[in-house]
Design goal:
Layout lengths: L14 H6 L10 E8 L5 E4 L2 E8 H13 L4 E7 L16 H12 L4 E6 L13 E2 L2 E2 L2 H16 L4 E4 L6 H11 L8 E6 L6 H7 L19 H13 L3 E5 L5 H10 L4 E5 L1 H12 L5 H15 L3 E4 L2 H11 L1
Parallel strand pairs: 1-3, 1-4, 1-12, 4-5, 5-8, 9-10, 10-11, 11-12
Antiparallel strand pairs: 2-3, 6-7
Helix pairs in contact: 2-3, 4-5
Bound molecules: ligand PBG.
């Protein structure tokens, strides 16, 4: 028989040969680890649907940060759980709000660590929406003012990167202008430019007690069915002065990651969100999957799809596994 075919297996024969031709590498520098900081004392409460992830008060933050640092993770993303919520999210932009205090704490004790502050109102409003409400609607422009105040107070506390996740139109240009005016022109904006109205945020909303008390977020977050709209959002944020773009959620939106990567020359971040984490954890706890291999394969897939950075609750485990592989 005289068959013509290519011998792809030549390059797969040994681990060293495979590593020679490997196109995508996962590195601890790729990870941003989200932390939920809670106002109050002696709180270390595991989030039921997110095993291994905790609400932590400031007095427990050093333990967490020591671990993060020992694993070589260089950036954390802070979410706040305030004691008091109100209709306009006052604690989001309070100079002594929980994210501001946690930022000061981390920057003082771990000055090298990059603190990314999530800029949104939904964890701080009693109605759970990401902006001000009038007649049952989330107001766009009025909410921008509060988001700018939030970003500026986070920058004042020492945040290295401001990450607005609220999906109001114009938040990037508003926050950029607000930061510049307040003397923070050096602080980058990592915009959640492409954020879908997703069921995958469920466990996060348990963790942050931020489920909308009425309605949903479909009037500001994107329709999961849309692809071209993601490029319009990304283009707007590029024009408005974003320094990084985020696509969120992660796994079900890898096509969007590739589209954005091919069209916009900004560092691209994927958010491997709470629901994605919970699914892996639940299956792993049942012994149905090999957690280490599954997680590393998923994170590699995200980078292969085109992202530069990954916000992930798996960061500590993944960092440990990568260390062990060396
Ligand atoms: C705040 C915010 C949310 C997440 C990150 N920032 C929740 C939401 O939009 O409902 C979700 C993150 C996750 O699910 O891990 N707006």
């Amino acid at each position: 028989m005289d068959l013509q075919f290519n011998r792809h297996r030549r390059l797969r024969q040994t681990e060293n040969m495979r590593s020679l031709v490997r196109e995508t590498d996962l590195h601890v520098n790729d990870f941003i680890y989200p932390i939920f900081v809670a106002e109050g004392k002696d709180i270390k409460k595991e989030i039921k649907s997110m095993p291994g992830v905790f609400n932590l008060s400031l007095d427990h933050l050093a333990e967490e940060m020591d671990e993060v640092v020992s694993l070589g993770i260089k950036s954390v993303l802070l979410f706040g759980i305030p004691l008091e919520k109100d209709d306009c999210g006052t604690q989001a932009y309070h100079d002594h709000g929980i994210v501001q205090e946690a930022t000061r704490f981390i920057k003082e004790k771990y000055p090298e660590i990059i603190v990314v502050a999530d800029t949104c109102l939904c964890e701080y409003t009693d109605h759970g929406h990401c902006g001000l409400i009038e007649n049952g609607e989330v107001l766009n422009d009025a909410s921008l003012e509060l988001l700018v105040q939030t970003a500026v107070s986070q920058a004042k506390a020492g945040a290295d990167i401001i990450a607005p996740s609220n999906m109001m139109d114009g938040f990037t240009v508003a926050i950029r202008a607000g930061l510049d005016e307040a003397g923070f022109s050096h602080v980058p904006v990592m915009s959640y430019a492409v954020k879908y109205a997703s069921a995958f945020y469920g466990p996060f909303r348990d963790a942050a007690d931020s489920t909308p008390q009425f309605g949903d977020r479909k009037a500001y977050q994107m329709d999961p069915a849309n692809r071209l709209e993601a490029l319009r959002e990304a283009e707007s944020d590029l024009m408005e002065g974003a320094d990084f773009l985020i696509v969120k959620p992660g796994l079900p939106y890898l096509d969007i990651v590739r589209d954005v990567k091919n069209n916009i020359n900004l560092p691209l971040v994927i958010y491997n969100v709470s629901g994605e984490y919970s699914m892996v954890k639940a299956a792993a706890q049942n012994g149905w999957i090999d957690e280490e291999r599954i997680v590393l394969e998923m994170l590699t897939g995200m980078k292969r799809a085109g992202c530069d950075l990954i916000i992930t609750y798996h960061a500590k485990d993944a960092a440990r596994w990568l260390q062990e592989q060396k």
